[in-house]
What does this fold into?
Amino acid sequence: MNDSINPATPLVMHIDLNSAFATTEQQARPMLRGKPVAIVNRRSPNAAVITASYEAKAKGVKVGTRMMEAKLLCPGIIAVESDPLKYRFVFKKLIGILSDYSPKATMKSIDEGLIDFNGMAINRPMIDVGMEIKQRLKNEIGNHMRCNVGIGTNRFLAKTAAGLHKPDGLDEINSKNLRTVFSGMKLRDITGIADGYGSRLEAVGINTPLEFLDADIYTLEKIVFKGIVGRQWHMRLKGWEVDDREFKMGRVGRQYVLESANLKYDQIITRLHSLCESVGYRLRSQNKSARGIYVYVRTQRGYYWHKSKLMTLPFFSNKAIYNLSRQLFFYAPGEIREIGVHCYHLEDYDQSQISLFGDEIAREKNLNLAVDTLNDRYGEQTIHSAHTLESGDFVKTKIPFGGVRYF
Amino acid sequence: MNDELALREKVVVLSVFGGGLHPCKPVKFKRASGREIQVSEIGLVYPALRGRREIHIFDVSDGQADYRLEFDARTLSWYLTQEADHYER
It folds into this structure.
């Protein structure tokens, strides 16, 4: 393990679209430019803000702020319903641009991309490459598009650099300026250090990023993080790569905030059924089956209830997911505000596995495959169970907060 | 307030086909009422599938309001599907 700051030339580039969905809407709809915009999944007072434009952020509107609160913070804020098609287009354009520069270009989330130039012959400064990408974004998507570009010796420093001068920054963190950059930051500005870790660090007298950088490995590994995470932070802060790894998909799920507080139990069940169909589709689209089912409810008073069950055999069909969810949901409390269904213990769906119920499983799989194919071609919920007829419009797939795995 | 109007209005569109970022550029369009709208800016152009049918969506503006035009590549027809205006600060 290396205790010193990584002296290598920074070759990892992080590209971060600014307030991605809001910027995309402002690109598409010029009349929104320069105005506070909030992207929401439903234009209702209770809807949570998915993305706020910089104009709205300046007034204190954040991700997760309810629209009724956002209007108090920022009178005149414009709520725009999310448009996944548009964001998918921008996402694909961006990944197309990034892929032109390296085979090791990936999207880390819906609005963040990463290019690893390590092992490649680069015959010009990385800053030039960053400027070119920023310009290409404008040329190939639209002139209102902006992004932050950060360059570092590892993913962490590249991302940190991308956050230094929002909304249109281009910064590099290297061994020479690392300490200067850290001296201008607060401990909780560091990506990954929220209140939990922040409090633990402060408890041992680490109050600034520079103190964190200089902390010895024993303190981090044995006292603060109590494990390998401490060693990883020790290296990460010094610019050594510890985050170059793929994470396996752990679960597939969806949640839904009820459109009204006055829904009857049967109406809530139809929405649960719609969620199960959506979760089933996502599961199968990843060629996965699941063994675990998890259902949760958040009540109007904020109480969180959940129940889960692990099955012996894997399942994948809408019917199985719904039947299992329904059994668990039976125990849910009343006054429901939000419901959610997740499948976990995912495994690759293996058709070669011999089962006593082979024919039945094959039939079920073929039926689900046919339904998925039709829905792929003719649009979401073209074919669905009759039971969800009334709920389908409400529980349409909306834009998720983070991942890109369904893109 | 943000007034968004969902429409399905067939419109006559004058377009220029050339190169650049937008090879097809709507220049102006005429609504069913006879009102002509001059496109001052094309915001975003992106494709969409409706079943097997390919649609090209043009988000445009005349400087007063934003409009969504959809071009059906199979029937070669244009529709106005959204109008959004009356933004207040």
